[in-house]
């Protein structure tokens, strides 16, 4: 179906399934794109079945979305798949990339001991739930001061990816 000309946010991710094909089990990815229109309403832009998740396949999805009428996307929320940002900018050069906070949390908490998980998450929440980027950066500094020696990989992943993790601070919370 034809799509809106502009979207405030488009969330893109793949869900992986094991399926039966030709009497054997293979892994397939279902690529999903969900758009938030300028009026705040959400809609599924599409679902595509492909092989393993790749930036090349996402490029074909992005081109299809453009061919169905999308001219501009303000923010595209994605995981950390290599080459994904390049694929997005090839089709929508003005779009800003927002790395998915949920994926980032999952990645950074895999290094955390179970006994430290709740207090670490309480401190981490102050970073990504902050009202402004300045408050978030202060909370990130506090997080590093408290947990940095014990969990340098977790804190480092936030600091190294901050540019793409903080895109949403440029916009009003609404």
Secondary structure: elements and pairs:
Elements: E1 6-21, E2 24-36, E3 42-50, H1 55-67, E4 72-78, H2 84-91, E5 96-99, H3 101-109, H4 114-128, H5 133-147, H6 152-160, H7 162-165
Parallel strand pairs: 1-4, 4-5
Antiparallel strand pairs: 1-2, 2-3
Helix pairs in contact: 1-2, 3-6, 4-5, 5-6
Please characterize this protein's 3D structure:
The model has no long low-confidence stretch (mean pLDDT 94). The chain has seven helices and five strands; from the N terminus they run βββαβαβααααα. The protein starts with 5 loop residues before the first strand and ends in a 9-residue tail after the last helix. It has two domains: 94 residues, Nucleotidyltransferase, domain 5; 70 residues. A five-stranded mixed β-sheet has the order 3-2-1-4-5. By secondary structure, the chain is α/β, with parallel strands linked by helices. Helix 3 packs antiparallel against helix 6.
DSSP strand tally:
5
Secondary structure: helix percent: 40-55%
Task: Report the span from N to C terminus.
Answer: 28 Å
Tally of discrete structural domains: 2
CATH architecture call of the largest domain: 2-Layer Sandwich
* CATH H-level superfamily of the largest domain: Ribonuclease H-like superfamily/Ribonuclease H
Low-confidence stretches: none
Average of per-residue pLDDT values: 94
The top level CATH class name of the largest domain: Alpha Beta
Please state the overall shape, judged from the principal axes of the Cα atoms: globular
Tally of helical runs:
7
Assign the structural class, choosing from mainly alpha, mainly beta, alpha/beta, alpha+beta, or little secondary structure.
alpha/beta
The description of the largest β-sheet is: 5 strands, mixed
Strand order of the largest sheet: 3-2-1-4-5
Write down the CATH topology of the largest domain: Nucleotidyltransferase, domain 5
Radius of gyration: 18 Å
């Amino acid at each position: 179906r034809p799509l809106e000309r502009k979207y405030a946010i488009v969330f893109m991710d793949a869900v992986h399934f094991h399926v039966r094909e030709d009497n054997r089990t293979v892994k397939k990815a279902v690529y999903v794109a969900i758009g938030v229109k300028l009026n705040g309403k959400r809609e599924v832009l599409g679902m595509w079945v492909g092989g393993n998740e790749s930036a090349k396949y996402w490029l074909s999805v992005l081109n299809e979305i453009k061919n169905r009428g999308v001219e501009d996307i303000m923010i595209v929320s994605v995981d950390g798949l290599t080459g994904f940002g390049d694929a997005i900018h090839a089709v929508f050069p003005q779009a800003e990339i927002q790395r998915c906070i949920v994926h980032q949390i999952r990645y950074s908490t895999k290094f955390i001991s179970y006994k430290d998980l709740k207090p670490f998450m309480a401190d981490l929440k102050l970073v990504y739930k902050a009202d402004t980027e300045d408050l978030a950066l202060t909370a990130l500094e506090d997080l590093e001061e408290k947990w940095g020696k014990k969990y340098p990989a977790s804190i480092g992943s936030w600091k190294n990816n901050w540019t793409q993790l903080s895109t949403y601070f440029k916009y009003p919370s609404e």
